[in-house]
């Protein structure tokens, strides 16, 4: 029998995927927890792009489990897993999202797994082993946290939002995000920079954050989280409001209600309009203690 996503049979097949993905993510998450307090050695993939034995062992475990269950699927993993056979199915694996946090013992990290069928994201899970929180979604069937339905927030006014961002490690001297951070800090309840893009997206999906943006994320950072946000009723685009693509290097996610307001802030920042001046620390120092 041929199963196509969208058909009832496909629904059953997708359910099988999510259950299997959840099992794999939980197993990988448990492995990460075993390494968490062992002060693992840190290696550098770039100037501040870290990797540890935990990233590699987690990816190896995930790859092994995917291949055992779905031997014909293609896989792309952050730490080098790459199976390219031209399959209609393709996995995006981030075996440890939040490596810098993990390496410092700051417990904000997760496992992120997503599955595409013919270029459509059909299933995704993000598992936070520190809180035992498993976020899952399948195309057309909603988003869930530990099996309970989740929804994006209902806040419609940007000034009342809590939003999140991240700063890319690659070419960090060339990234203008500090201006976005400053500007949007002054126009919202605040910004969190927690250090795991997949969890940031899961937090938008579950209404904990009202929005999130980041430059230069990779497909393994975003694939599962974007599906979570969309299935929870939110919106994900590039910084101009165009369709989000895994290779677009721009990710902005929100509850939908504040999306336009966020995008118009971005447009203003890119055009240098209404930029709030960053307070000068030298001038500030002159006033200290007075
Ligand atoms: C990183 C995290 C971080 C984001 C970086 C990502 P990694 O992923 O998602 O929040 O700011 O851009 O590279 O390297 O920890 O898997
Ligand atoms: Ca990542
Ligand atoms: Ca990673």
Description of the structure:
With 290 residues, the chain is of the alpha+beta class. It has two domains: 8-150, Fructose-1,6-Bisphosphatase, Chain A, domain 1 (2-Layer Sandwich), CATH 3.30.540.10; 158-271, D-Maltodextrin-Binding Protein, domain 2 (3-Layer(aba) Sandwich), CATH 3.40.190. The protein has eight helices and 15 strands. The protein has helices at 8-36, 53-69, 99-103, 177-185, 197-205, 219-231, 259-270, 281-286, and strands spanning 42-44, 50-52, 74-77, 82-83, 89-97, 110-117, 120-128, 133-138, 143-145, 148-150, 162-165, 190-192, 211-215, 235-237, 250-254. The strands form three sheets. Strands 4-3-5-6-7-8-9-10 form an eight-stranded mixed sheet, with helices on both faces. Strands 12-11-13-15-14 form a five-stranded mixed sheet, with helices on both faces. A two-stranded antiparallel sheet has the order 1-2. A hairpin with a 4-residue loop joins strand 3 and strand 4. Helix 1 runs antiparallel to helix 2 (53-69), helix 4 (177-185) crosses helix 7 and helix 5 (197-205) packs parallel to helix 6. It is globular. It binds D-MYO-inositol-1-phosphate and calcium ion (2 copies). D-MYO-inositol-1-phosphate (IPD) binds at residues 78, 94, 97-99, 166-168, 195-197, 214, 217, 221.
């Amino acid at each position: 029998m041929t199963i196509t996503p969208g058909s009832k049979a496909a629904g059953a097949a997708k359910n099988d995927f999510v259950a299997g993905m959840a099992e794999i993510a939980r197993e990988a998450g448990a492995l990460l927890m075993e390494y968490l307090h062992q002060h693992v050695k840190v290696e550098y993939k770039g100037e501040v792009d870290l990797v540890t034995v935990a990233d590699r062992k987690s990816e190896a475990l995930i790859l092994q489990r995917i291949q055992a269950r779905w031997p014909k699927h293609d896989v792309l993993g952050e730490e080098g897993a790459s199976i390219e056979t031209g399959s209609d199915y393709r996995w995006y694996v981030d075996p440890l999202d939040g490596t810098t946090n993990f390496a410092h013992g700051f417990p904000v990290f997760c496992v992120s797994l997503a599955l595409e069928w013919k270029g459509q994201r059909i299933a995704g899970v993000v598992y936070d082993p520190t809180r035992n929180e498993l976020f899952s979604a399948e195309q057309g069937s909603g988003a869930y946290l530990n099996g309970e339905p989740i929804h994006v927030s209902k806040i419609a006014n940007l000034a009342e939002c809590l939003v999140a961002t991240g700063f890319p490690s690659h070419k960090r001297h060339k990234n203008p995000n500090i201006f976005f951070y400053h500007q949007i800090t002054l126009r919202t309840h605040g910004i969190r920079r927690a250090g795991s893009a997949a969890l940031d997206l899961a937090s938008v999906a579950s209404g904990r954050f009202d929005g999130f943006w980041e430059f230069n994320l990779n497909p393994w950072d975003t694939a599962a989280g974007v599906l979570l946000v969309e299935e929870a009723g939110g919106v994900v685009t590039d910084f101009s409001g165009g369709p989000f693509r895994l290779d677009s290097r721009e990710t902005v996610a929100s509850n939908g209600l504040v999306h336009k307001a966020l995008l118009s802030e971005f447009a203003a920042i890119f055009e240098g309009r209404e930029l709030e001046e960053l307070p000068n620390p030298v001038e500030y120092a002159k006033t200290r203690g007075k």
